[in-house]
Structures are given as structure tokens and as C-alpha cells.
Design brief:
Elements (H helix, E strand, L loop, with lengths): L6 H17 L1 H10 L7 H4 L20 H14 L1 H20 L2 H12 L5 E4 L15 E5 L2 E11 L7 E10 L2 E11 L6 E4 L11 E11 L3 E2 L5 H7 L1 H29 L1 E2 L2 E2 L4 H30 L4 H26 L9 H10 L8 H13 L6
Parallel strand pairs: 1-4, 2-4
Antiparallel strand pairs: 2-3, 3-7, 4-5, 5-8, 6-7, 9-10
Helix pairs in contact: 1-4, 4-5, 4-8, 4-9, 5-6, 5-8, 8-9, 8-10, 8-11, 9-10, 10-11, 10-12
Length: about 375
């Protein structure tokens, strides 16, 4: 069952779409060509709740609920998947700093991040560690008043541009024997090597490899307690999967809207192509998939809003919505014919970017195994 948005949500959504159309969309073609990002658009998006909106008002947020947040992510995905992705990374850093940061860390990192004066990335994935967080090899050795970091992080969104990274490393100190901890690493104060990576998808998200060779960071840059990162990383996955799912719904809805308009206005054989049965079949199949994906996403948002366990709902939403978005984009490209290949038209970009949703925050295969474990009570993850 499709869960309707409250009237106030619909009003906000329409305001966001008008703003995005006027202030963000004009930047997209140039930045896609340059593989860059217009960071100057971010401060104004905070007014809609896109930057730290789920934090309490007393801490600089807007006390947004998960249903409103799901709508925001859908609209960001509708506009530009690279935008949705960078918002996801930024808010992930905000959430961890708010939950774990000291007063000093919040003043130095959280507050500037909320004002879009600083930029962050999250360093979890490594060359030999993707979905298996427990396999992280990067290490942090405590030596006096500082930690020494050694290792590499791969496929790091915003890694090319961030001025600080929150990284997960296996920690060795008198109180920690190899458990995972979180660390804040400032690029200027504790230089690490950054190698930009060009990708097929999400070309404007500054994907990079980060290399740490005896990088020293102050002891006070430990985020939270030593050895506690594993549970902290996993605890954020449900929300991140909802973000990706709803962004995928937005991208799919955009592809559908473009296809409906094109089917009404494009003529062949003396009539609109929308009057042909097979084109209508594409449009109907796309609509059914988008509506179903949105319903599953909102169901996951409701589960998160209730609190407690939402792993199954969020994994189902991400699994279905990301697969569906690419299917819808593929059908949209078919409706548009040759025009769909053009880099001057959004379909080509939506087709590429929707493929990207099936990998991060747990691949399609991992989501399948999570759902299977929830249903059967038996894990197939070795």
C-alpha cells in the first residue's frame, strides 16, 4: 500500500523541486563534463533540512523525522544522484560526530560541517575489504600523545575534496588489542595521499583512494572510545540504506516523468509514440515499479521512526529500489531511443547513476542474505 505524504510534506517537496530546478539543475551538465561538484549550492539546502536536519534543534538541526528525511532523499535523487550521494556522506559524518564527538570535536568539525564550511568523507572500504567491515586491515598504533595510521581506503566518496576524513582502523594500545576504532584525520594537519578515481557512475562525487603511511594524528582525534567502531559503523547502515533506496526512487521517478512527457510529444508514423501499445507497456511497468519501490522505502522509514529493529525493512527497500531504479532507467532509455544516449539529456546520466546504487552500503547480494537471515533465522554469510 502506498503511504501518502502529509500535506505539509507535499508542500515542502514542491518547494524543494522548484528550488532544485532553479538553482541546482543548471549546474549539472557542466559539472558532469568536468567531474566536479558545485559545493556552493549546499549552504542554501540546509534551509530545507538537507544538512544535519535530523539533529535536535538545540544542536543545530531541525528534528526531522524519518518520513520527512525519506522525502528529502527522494527529491535529491530526482534532481541529481551525485548530490544525493554527497548529502548522504556529509550527514553520515554529522551523525557520527554528534553521537560520539567531544565538545572540542563538535566545535572543530561538526559545527563547520553544518555550516558547509568544511567537507568530510568516511573511510571504511579498503582494497581487500568491501562488505565485510570486520576484515578491515588499516591499523592505528598509539605512541605517546598521538596515533600512527598505516593502510589504504578505497572507493571513498568525496575523498578527493574532503578536508578531513573519519576513518576506521584496527587499534593497538595498552587498552585495545586490534579492535576497530574511529579517527578524525585532517588532511592539512596530518597529510595523507589522495588519488582521484574516475568511475562510470556518480562522476561528480570525488571518489578517491586514500593512503596512510605513518600518518600521525593527535590522540584527541580519536572519535568515541577505542575498540567500539564495529558496532557504531553497523548501527548506521539501516539509515544509509534508506537514503540510497529513496534516492533511487527519486531517480526512477525522474526517468518515468521524462518518458511520459516524451511519449506524449514525440511523434512517429503521424501520431504520438505514447499511443503505441508497447510504449504504453513500458510506461505502465515503470509506474508499477516506482510506486512499489516508494512504498517499500516509506515502510522502512516508518520502521526506523518507530525505533528499534528495522534491518529487514531497510534491506528490502534498498534491494528492491536500487534494482528497480536501473530497470526503470533502462526502459526509459528504450522509450527515448537515440536521444537517451545523449550526454546533454538526463536519461544517459540516470541510467549510469542508478547502476551505482546496487553496490554501496551492502551489495544486492548482501541485502539478499540479510533478508534471508531475518526470515529464516539462519545466516548464509560466512
Amino acid at each position: 500500500m502506498t503511504i501518502p505524504l502529509e500535506t505539509e510534506h507535499a508542500i515542502v517537496r514542491d518547494s524543494i523541486r522548484r528550488y532544485m530546478q532553479a538553482k541546482v539543475v543548471p549546474h549539472i551538465v557542466r559539472h558532469e563534463a568536468e567531474h566536479s561538484f558545485p559545493f556552493e549550492v549546499l549552504p542554501a539546502l540546509r534551509e530545507f533540512g538537507y544538512i544535519g536536519g535530523m539533529l535536535p534543534e538545540a544542536d543545530g538541526g531541525m528534528d526531522l523525522d524519518y518520513l520527512t528525511w525519506a522525502m528529502l532523499m527522494e527529491e535529491a535523487g530526482y534532481t541529481w544522484m551525485s548530490l544525493r550521494t554527497l548529502l548522504n556522506i556529509t550527514n553520515g559524518a554529522i551523525r557520527r560526530l554528534h553521537a560520539l564527538g567531544t565538545d572540542d570535536q563538535k566545535a572543530r568539525f561538526l559545527q563547520p560541517l553544518l555550516r558547509s564550511e568544511r567537507s568530510a568523507c568516511m573511510g571504511i572500504t579498503e582494497p581487500n575489504t568491501g562488505s565485510n567491515v570486520a576484515g578491515i586491515q588499516m591499523r592505528a598504533d598509539l605512541r605517546g600523545d598521538h596515533y600512527v595510521l598505516n593502510g589504504r581506503k578505497l572507493w571513498i566518496t568525496n575523498g578527493a575534496w574532503a578536508d578531513f576524513a573519519i576513518v576506521v582502523a584496527r587499534t593497538f594500545s595498552p587498552d585495545c588489542d586490534g579492535q576497530l576504532s574511529l579517527f578524525i584525520v585532517e588532511r592539512e594537519a596530518s597529510p595523507y595521499e589522495v588519488r582521484r578515481l574516475d568511475t562510470m557512475v556518480l562522476r561528480c562525487t570525488g571518489t578517491a583512494e586514500l593512503s596512510f603511511a605513518d600518518v600521525k594524528i593527535p590522540r584527541e582525534n580519536l572519535l568515541g572510545a577505542e575498540g567500539q567502531a564495529f558496532s557504531k559503523v553497523l548501527s548506521g547502515l539501516d539509515g544509509a540504506r534508506l537514503n540510497i533506496a529513496m534516492g533511487a526512487v527519486g531517480a526512477a521517478q525522474h526517468a518515468l516523468d521524462l518518458s511520459v512527457e516524451y511519449a506524449k510529444t514525440r511523434t512517429q508514423f503521424g501520431r504520438p509514440i505514447g499511443s503505441f501499445q508497447l510504449i504504453q507497456k513500458h510506461i505502465v511497468d515503470m509506474t508499477v515499479r516506482v510506486e512499489a519501490a516508494r512504498a517499500l522505502g516509506m515502510r522502512a522509514a516508518h520502521a526506523l521512526q518507530r525505533g528499534g529493529h528495522a534491518r529487514m525493512e531497510c534491506s528490502i527497500a534498498k534491494l528492491y529500489a536500487t534494482e528497480t531504479a536501473h530497470e526503470v532507467a533502462n526502459m526509459a532509455l528504450q522509450v527515448h531511443g537515440g536521444l537517451g544516449y545523449s550526454t546533454d539529456y538526463p536519461i544517459e546520466r540516470i541510467f549510469r547513476d542508478t547502476r551505482g546504487g546496487m553496490i554501496p552500503e551492502g551489495t544486492t547480494e548482501i541485502q539478499t542474505l540479510i533478508v534471508g537471515r531475518e526470515i529464516l533465522g539462519m545466516s548464509a554469510i560466512v
